[in-house]
Design a protein that fits this description.
By secondary structure, the chain is α/β, with parallel strands linked by helices. It has a single domain, classed as Flavodoxin domain (Rossmann fold). Helix content is 35%, strand content 16%. It is built from five helices and eight strands. Strands 2, 4, 5, 6, 7 and 8 form a six-stranded parallel sheet that branches. The two termini are 21 Å apart. Bound molecules: flavin mononucleotide (FMN). Flavin mononucleotide (FMN) binds next to loops.
Length: 192
């Protein structure tokens, strides 16, 4: 079986963002997993449109579009901003639609507060459902993120080694199962 392709999307462009540490750490873990290929995307790198969303806009972002067409699943790393997600993350996700259908998504939540992005993940679920993504029930949460990494992005809490294994295991299961479904079970939504 060919490798699963599971890109990572870092969801905030904020200067000095702590989420970058979490995103890079998780991406490295995915890259190290046998049978998984990944690619790192950063909302900061998208020259987002000011006046147009919807039909055909994805063609202006071929690297992102090609990655999502090829993807079996997606990891979204999101900080919690006022119990919600960053606007830039929503804008990047809105660039595509049919490309996401029947693919898995798993969330990494990052917060200064004690809930590790639980609230922002719950806020994202109804939105990604409309994109056709299937949500993993295994999240990875980084509460009090400033104390979780040193200034160079080294993780300071060994418990995450175990947690990230379970997080990736579930995403791999869902992505494998959904790939089988896309390839073997016809759907009127499989138009790409
Ligand atoms: C606009 C804004 C709103 C925020 N709202 C929350 C919040 O609701 N809950 C929380 O725990 N932290 C909140 N934070 C703090 C972030 O969780 C904190 O900055 C953390 O490091 C993750 O975000 P970062 O990747 O931008 O650093 C907020 C930060 C910003 C910039």
């Amino acid at each position: 079986m060919r490798d699963l392709f599971l890109p990572v999307l870092l969801g905030t462009p904020r200067k000095n963002r702590q989420s970058e540490h979490a995103a890079k750490w998780v991406a490295a873990k995915l890259a190290g997993r046998t049978g998984v290929e990944t690619q790192f995307f950063d909302v900061r790198d998208f020259d987002l449109p000011r006046d147009h969303y919807g039909t055909e806009i994805g063609e202006r972002f071929p690297e992102w579009r090609d990655a999502i067409v090829r993807a079996d699943g997606l990891v979204i790393v999101t900080p919690e901003y006022n119990h919600g997600y960053p606007g830039a993350l929503k804008s990047v996700l809105d660039l595509l639609l049919k490309e996401y259908i029947h693919k898995a998504v798993a969330f990494v939540g990052v917060s200064a507060g004690p809930w590790g992005g639980t609230r922002v993940i719950e806020a994202m679920v109804p939105m990604v459902r409309e994109l056709g993504l299937a949500v993993s029930f295994s999240d990875l949460n980084f509460p009090g993120v400033a104390s979780k990494f040193d200034s160079e992005g080294n993780l300071l809490d060994a418990a995450y080694e175990h947690r990230v294994t379970g997080f990736i295991d579930e995403l791999v299961w869902m992505s494998t199962t959904l790939r089988w479904g896309r390839e073997n079970v016809p759907s009127r939504f499989h138009t790409i």
